[in-house]
Amino acid sequence: MATVTLEKLVKRYGALEVVHGIDLEVANREFIALVGPSGCGKSTTLRMIAGLEPISGGNLKIGGRIVNDLPPRARNLAMVFQSYALYPHMTVRENMGFSLKIAGMKPEEISPRVEEAASTLDLTALLDRRPSQLSGGQRQRVAMGRAIVRDPEVFLFDEPLSNLDAKLRTQMRTEIKKLHAKVQSTVIYVTHDQVEAMTLADRIVIMRDGYIEQVGSPEEVFQRPNSKFVAGFIGSPPMNLKDAEIADGRIVFANGESLPLPKQFADRVSAGRKVTFGLRPDDLYPTGHGIHSGHETDVHTQDLRVSITEPLGNETLVFSEFGGHEWVGRMLNPRPLKMGEMLGFCFDLSQAHLFDRDSGKTLRG
């Protein structure tokens, strides 16, 4: 059983604490993604799991066994790095089998493992090439193949796609998803790219300043963010988040313009409460050009002036001003728009979020 358990895990560099006693349970064969902005502690956490960084406090368990003081080679893990870390003078075949050779395995035992991994990753035709003869995507597949041949209980990925262009990243996401379906190992995957996390992971762990902000499925963290930070981090483009105050059953913005208080918050906030109002671009759309997900009575229509547009083919992002803030909406089945044009927008308040302005925590309950 390749469960991975973090119990009050701490990392310090001298007096500076960068990971603050985090708890996490990763199930056998689960795909977990650690995401967050630079400096949030996600890569440091991964390196502690790998044994590349000493643990300053708490326990790390793999398969129920405490491994805090075990060296990396004794943890039955395999790690895929951002930089590929291939030996340039070795062929693909030699790179993939090198760790097994170092472990003392015989050539006749290594060869079938390498062949099987190469077949899984569509590398068979490349086995006799050197890294300099490969594309970036091929090199990353070789790095994954080197991990597969070890037959580890846990795969660790440290931003493996960040060196690739956008098209290759999309292709490699598909490769990694297929790989997980085939090898059925536990995967812990670090990325700063929330699209990678959303498309690959069973659950997402969102980190901030060395703490875990929220753990949940991609759907949970997108639809029910626990905090303003999570709401702004997950989603592309990010959620519209605007400071406001509750008054007379309305959400009142700084310049006095307002929206009706969403029904789901009627019993949760009182007049004078300072809040942050949140609405995703999908739920703010020009009339007739969106998908309404609530009841008609939850839709507030407002005429707004178009300030800028970003055409994306089958949709257009539309920027406009309201309440003293800039908002972005998503226009499906778009038509050409002109800057300065007045346009009716639907605010789907059934999908709105409210956060406490000071703590940043959701008021959803």
UniProtKB/TrEMBL annotation:
<dbReference type="InterPro" id="IPR015855">
    <property type="entry name" value="ABC_transpr_MalK-like"/>
</dbReference>
<dbReference type="InterPro" id="IPR012340">
    <property type="entry name" value="NA-bd_OB-fold"/>
</dbReference>
<keyword id="KW-0813">Transport</keyword>
<keyword id="KW-0067">ATP-binding</keyword>
<dbReference type="GO" id="GO:0008643">
    <property type="term" value="P:carbohydrate transport"/>
</dbReference>
<dbReference type="InterPro" id="IPR027417">
    <property type="entry name" value="P-loop_NTPase"/>
</dbReference>
<comment type="similarity">
    <text>Belongs to the ABC transporter superfamily.</text>
</comment>
<protein>
    <submittedName>
        <fullName>Sugar ABC transporter ATP-binding protein</fullName>
    </submittedName>
</protein>
<feature type="domain" description="ABC transporter">
    <location>
        <begin position="4"/>
        <end position="234"/>
    </location>
</feature>
<dbReference type="InterPro" id="IPR003593">
    <property type="entry name" value="AAA+_ATPase"/>
</dbReference>
<dbReference type="InterPro" id="IPR003439">
    <property type="entry name" value="ABC_transporter-like_ATP-bd"/>
</dbReference>
<keyword id="KW-0547">Nucleotide-binding</keyword>
<dbReference type="GO" id="GO:0005524">
    <property type="term" value="F:ATP binding"/>
</dbReference>
<dbReference type="InterPro" id="IPR008995">
    <property type="entry name" value="Mo/tungstate-bd_C_term_dom"/>
</dbReference>
<dbReference type="InterPro" id="IPR040582">
    <property type="entry name" value="OB_MalK-like"/>
</dbReference>
<dbReference type="Pfam" id="PF00005">
    <property type="entry name" value="ABC_tran"/>
</dbReference>
<dbReference type="GO" id="GO:0055052">
    <property type="term" value="C:ATP-binding cassette (ABC) transporter complex, substrate-binding subunit-containing"/>
</dbReference>
<dbReference type="GO" id="GO:0016887">
    <property type="term" value="F:ATP hydrolysis activity"/>
</dbReference>
<dbReference type="Pfam" id="PF17912">
    <property type="entry name" value="OB_MalK"/>
</dbReference>
<dbReference type="GO" id="GO:0140359">
    <property type="term" value="F:ABC-type transporter activity"/>
</dbReference>
<dbReference type="InterPro" id="IPR017871">
    <property type="entry name" value="ABC_transporter-like_CS"/>
</dbReference>
<dbReference type="InterPro" id="IPR047641">
    <property type="entry name" value="ABC_transpr_MalK/UgpC-like"/>
</dbReference>
